[in-house]
Design a protein that fits this description.
The chain is an alpha/beta fold. The chain has 9 helices and 14 strands. The chain has one domain: TIM Barrel (Alpha-Beta Barrel).
Length: about 290
């Protein structure tokens, strides 16, 4: 599958570092960055290893997910003072945040933001039985806010059904090419499809022309799904949000360690990670 189909030149890929997440914490791995200075330092280390995009969740002083605009602005300013990595905020936020709180990060004006493409049921963990609601009208509100602010949506797809929401937004002219889809698999506690090669390939085969796709495997599937995604002409996402281990039984030392490994694999496959400015061109971003 030729990568140029998805708007990325042959021989290139884009690496995203997912810093913190809404559930991972220092309780599980002390190297998870939670406060603005930690997140900025981690982003800079990932940039130096070859990441072009930094995916961000903010935390309050207690380490809980927050929508506080001041904290997001602080994180952005600290990162921009260090490097030109693309800032991608999360509107998934955390299970403790309302829809209005989740969308608040857009006021900090990231270049990109996640857009979750459907509802899921949490089937494990402390929020078991509580739905993660992303109804069509809620998706429309989120994408409208992004478009009005010139923010590129990173559409997160956790199963085949969510592709219909992507198609609907495209048909209604609410999103523009190149479409950017993050395929997220293996998030069992939140009802995502399994992180198998068959499932991943099936979703890739159904993507519309003009799509750039990213590859996210949760837990032990992180490296294999990221590698498979690059083999199929896509991009790769790694980081402590999705996986706190470097290998079985060994906690990762930080996000940069995970980025360094996937960059090594990319180069073994004959791919060179895009710089932030190259990624901006491929993704059609307004230059920061």
């Amino acid at each position: 599958m030729d990568a140029t189909v998805y708007g990325i030149p042959k021989g290139k890929t884009i690496i995203t570092a997912a810093q913190t997440g809404g559930l991972s914490s220092k309780k599980f791995n002390p190297n998870v960055p939670e406060q603005p200075a930690e997140i900025a330092d981690s982003a800079y280390a990932c940039f130096n290893e070859g990441a072009a995009v930094c995916h961000i969740h903010a935390r309050d002083k207690n380490g809980d997910p927050t929508s506080d605009l001041g904290i997001y602005q602080d994180i952005h300013e600290r990162i921009k003072a260090k490097c030109n990595i693309i800032i991608q905020d999360s509107t998934g936020g955390g299970p403790n945040l309302t829809h209005e709180q989740r969308i608040n990060c857009l006021k900090a004006q990231p270049e990109m933001a996640s857009l979750n493409m459907g509802s899921l049921m949490r089937v494990a963990g402390p929020y078991k039985g509580i739905a993660w609601s992303n109804m069509p009208e809620e998706i429309d509100k989120f994408v409208g806010e992004m478009v009005n602010r010139g923010i590129r949506p990173e559409m997160e797809v956790f199963n085949h059904a969510m592709l219909f929401e992507v198609q609907r937004l495209a048909e209604q002219g609410l999103i523009r090419k190149p479409f950017y889809i993050n395929i997220v698999l293996g998030m069992k506690y939140q009802g995502a499809e399994p992180a198998t090669p068959e499932t991943f390939y099936s979703i890739v085969q159904k993507l519309s022309p003009g799509t750039i796709f990213n590859s996210t495997g949760v837990g032990p599937a992180q490296t294999s799904i990221a590698t498979l995604g690059m083999l199929l002409g896509g991009c790769a996402r790694v980081g402590l949000e999705d996986n706190i281990y470097y290998r079985k039984g060994e906690l990762a030392q930080g996000n940069a360690q995970l980025v360094a490994r996937i960059v090594r694999i990319a180069r073994e496959l004959g791919l060179e990670p895009a710089t932030p400015d190259e990624a901006r061109r491929y993704l059609g971003l307004n230059k920061a």
